[in-house]
Write a structure and sequence with these properties.
The complex is a heterodimer of chains A (about 400) and B (about 90). Chain A has about 400 residues and is an alpha/beta fold. Helices cover about 30% and strands about 25% of the residues of chain A. Chain A has two domains: about 15-55 and about 160-230 and about 320-380, 3-Layer(bba) Sandwich (FAD/NAD(P)-binding domain); about 95-155 and about 230-320, D-Amino Acid Oxidase, subunit A, domain 2 (D-Amino Acid Oxidase, Chain A, domain 2, 2-Layer Sandwich), CATH 3.30.9. Chain A has helices at about 25-35, 70-80, 85-90, 105-120, 130-135, 160-175, 215-225, 285-300, 345-360, 375-380; strands at about 15-20, 40-45, 60, 100-105, 125-130, 150, 155, 175-180, 185-190, 195-200, 200-205, 210, 230-240, 250-255, 260, 265-270, 310-320, 325-330, 335-340. An eight-stranded mixed sheet of chain A has the order 5-6-4-14-15-16-13-17, sandwiched between helices. Chain A has a six-stranded mixed sheet with strand order 8-2-1-12-19-18, sandwiched between helices. In chain A, helix 1 (about 25-35) runs parallel beside helix 9 (about 345-360). The longest helix of chain A is centred in the last third of the chain and has 18 residues, at about 345-360. The termini of chain A are far apart. The relative contact order of chain A is 0.20. Chain B has about 90 residues and is mainly alpha-helical. Chain B has one domain (about 5-85): Orthogonal Bundle (Arc Repressor Mutant, subunit A). Chain B has a two-stranded antiparallel ribbon. In chain B, strand 1 (about 5) and strand 2 form a beta hairpin. The termini of chain B are far apart. The chains are: A alpha/beta (about 400), B mainly alpha (about 90). The interface of A and B includes residues 3, 165, 241, 290 and 310 of A.
Chain lengths: ~400, ~90
C-alpha cells in the first residue's frame, strides 16, 4: 500500500514484463504497455511510488528545445500533458500558464533568438520577447536582469505527485501490478537473454525487464551486466511559504542555471545549479546550494527578499554525457530495455512512455525515439541540445 | 466533530481518515496528499498529532511509522538573509 491502485497481493512468480522503478517513467510506461494490450505487467519500486526524482523535481513542462531530437520528443509529451487529467481521470493540476526562458544578458538573448528560429522550423510555437514585453508579462522581475526572453505559451507546470498517483491508478485499472517497498537484488540473464528478477519479496520469472530506476539506473543496469556510461548528480531545490500570486508562468534562468514557478498553493519553488557540480549521490542538501539559490532568485525577483524559505531538499539523477535520456533496448542483453538517463524526465515522461510502449509491443522503434537509443553513448554520436538549464562540463548551458 | 491537526494547511483528522480510506496509507504519501507537515511549520507544531492520527487510522504502531525527513532550515528564514555574503557562483 501507499497510494491507491497499489497491488494488494504478493508478487506472482511470473510476469510478461517487469519494470524496475515505480517513478513517473516506470508507472507511465506500465500504463502505456497495458493500453497496448500487454498483459501481466509488474512494476517493482524500492520505496513508495514517486519517492525518487519524480517527487523532487521542479515540475516544469515545455517542448521548446533547440534540437530537432529533443523538440520532437517533448512536443509529443506536451500534447499529452494538455489532455492527461482527462485521460487518467485524475486532476494532475496541469497549469498551462506558459514557460519563459529568461535571457539576462545579450548573449542569452542571442541564444533565445537562435532557438526561436529553430522552433519556427520545427513547428513549435514560441514568441521571442524583448525586454519590455518580458517585464510586462512578469512584472516581478528585476528589469536589470532582463535582456529579453523566449516564451512558450502552452508550456507550464503540473503537480508531480498527482501525476504519479494518476498513472498508478490508471495502470491498475488496466491490470498492472505496482509493488512498492520491493527492492531488486539481482537480474537473471541466461544465454544473453533476460529470464528473471530477484527481489527482496521473491524471485520473478520474466522475458522482459525495463530499467526505469532513475538515479539508481546505472546500478540496476549493472545487475544485468550492462555498463551505462552515466554519472550520478545531486540536484537541490527549495520551497518558500505561500505568498500572493505574483508569477504565472514557469521560468528558466538561462545563464544563471535556475528554474522556478509559483505553485497553485502560492509557494515559490525553485532550484539552481552552480557552474561546477561535483558528482554526488547523497540526498542531503548543502548550505552552498541554498545560498546560491537565494542569491540568484532574490536578484531576479527582488520581492523574494522578505519571503521566508521553509524547506530545501535534494534529488539524484543519472546523467548521460549529452544529458539526453536513454530509451530503447540494451543491445547486449535480449529483453532488457532502458528508460533512464533522464534529467528532464518529469516533462518528458508522458510522451516517452507512449513511444517506448509502441517500440516494445510493436517491435519497431518509432522515429522520434530512434536518436535516443544507448548506442549513441558508445559511438560518440551525441545529441546536441543547447537550451538545457543544467550544469555540466559537456553542455554549453 | 472534526479536529484541525495541521494549523498551516487546516488538515483535520477527518482528512487523514479520508486519505487512508482512499489508499494513501503511508506517512510520506499522506503528507503529500493532504499537505500536512508541508506548511511553514514543517511539522514542528503538528507532527505528533498527525502521526498519531495516521497510526490510529492505519492501525500501525506509532513507533513503527516512518517519520518524514526533517530538512533545512530549522525554522523559516527570509531569503535575503540566506543570500547575504559573497557570491557562491561565478
Amino acid at each position: 500500500m501507499a497510494v491507491p491502485g497499489i497491488a494488494r497481493g504478493p508478487l506472482r512468480p511470473r510476469y510478461d514484463a517487469v519494470i524496475i522503478g515505480g517513478g513517473l517513467q516506470g508507472v507511465a510506461l506500465a500504463y502505456e504497455l497495458a493500453r497496448k494490450g500487454m498483459r501481466d505487467v509488474c512494476v517493482v519500486e524500492a520505496s513508495y511510488p514517486g519517492a525518487g526524482a519524480s517527487g523532487r523535481n521542479g515540475e516544469l513542462i515545455r517542448s521548446a528545445f533547440s534540437s530537432p531530437e529533443w523538440a520532437t520528443l517533448f512536443e509529443i509529451s506536451l500534447r499529452k500533458w494538455h489532455t492527461l487529467s482527462a485521460e487518467l481521470d485524475v486532476n494532475v493540476l496541469f497549469t498551462p500558464a506558459g514557460y519563459l526562458v529568461l535571457a539576462s544578458t545579450e548573449a542569452d538573448f542571442r541564444r533565445c533568438r537562435l532557438a526561436a528560429e529553430r522552433h519556427r522550423q520545427l513547428g513549435i510555437r514560441t514568441d521571442l520577447l524583448d525586454a519590455r514585453s518580458v517585464c510586462q508579462a512578469v512584472p516581478a522581475l528585476n528589469p536589470d536582469r532582463v535582456a529579453g526572453g523566449l516564451f512558450q505559451r502552452d508550456g507550464g507546470f503540473a503537480h508531480h505527485d498527482a501525476v504519479v498517483w494518476g498513472y498508478v491508478r490508471a495502470a491498475a485499472w488496466q491490470g498492472v501490478e505496482v509493488h512498492p517497498f520491493t527492492t531488486v537484488t539481482g537480474i537473471r540473464v541466461e544465454g544473453g537473454r533476460v529470464t528473471g528478477v530477484e527481489t527482496t519479496c521473491g524471485t520473478i520469472s520474466t522475458p522482459m525487464v525495463v530499467d526505469a530506476a532513475g538515479g539508481q539506473a546505472r546500478e540496476v543496469a549493472a545487475l544485468a551486466g550492462v555498463a551505462l556510461p552515466t554519472r550520478t548528480l545531486r540536484l537541490e531545490a527549495f520551497v518558500t511559504e505561500a505568498l500572493r500570486p505574483f508569477l504565472r508562468p514557469g521560468v528558466a534562468l538561462l545563464s544563471l542555471l535556475g528554474y522556478c514557478h509559483q505553485t497553485t498553493r502560492g509557494e515559490f519553488v525553485g532550484g539552481t545549479e552552480q557552474r561546477i557540480m561535483e558528482p554526488e549521490d547523497s540526498l542531503r542538501t548543502t548550505l552552498v546550494g541554498l545560498r546560491d539559490a537565494c542569491q540568484k532568485f532574490v536578484d531576479v525577483f527582488p520581492l523574494l527578499a522578505g519571503v521566508r524559505l521553509i524547506r530545501q531538499w535534494a534529488g539524484v539523477v543519472d546523467l548521460t554525457p549529452d544529458l539526453a535520456p536513454v530509451l530503447g533496448p540494451a543491445p547486449e542483453v535480449e529483453g532488457f530495455w532502458l528508460d533512464c538517463g533522464w534529467i528532464y524526465g518529469f516533462m518528458g515522461a508522458p510522451g516517452a512512455a507512449l513511444l517506448l510502449a509502441r517500440a516494445i509491443v510493436d517491435g519497431r522503434m518509432p522515429a522520434p525515439l530512434a536518436p535516443f537509443t544507448v548506442e549513441r553513448l558508445y559511438t560518440g554520436r551525441l545529441i546536441k541540445e543547447a537550451s538545457l538549464v543544467v550544469a555540466s562540463p559537456e553542455s554549453a548551458a | 466533530m472534526k479536529r484541525i491537526l495541521c494549523l498551516c494547511h487546516d488538515v483535520t483528522d477527518a482528512d487523514i481518515a479520508r486519505a487512508v480510506r482512499l489508499g494513501y496509507d503511508h506517512p510520506e504519501t499522506i503528507k503529500r496528499f493532504t499537505g500536512a507537515l508541508m506548511g511553514p511549520c514543517q511539522g514542528r507544531s503538528c507532527a505528533e498529532l498527525v502521526l498519531d492520527a495516521i497510526a490510529r487510522e492505519t492501525g500501525v504502531d506509532p513507533a513503527m511509522l516512518r517519520t518524514p525527513t526533517s530538512r533545512p532550515p530549522s525554522f523559516p528564514v527570509r531569503m535575503a538573509l540566506l543570500a547575504g555574503g559573497e557570491r557562491v557562483d561565478r
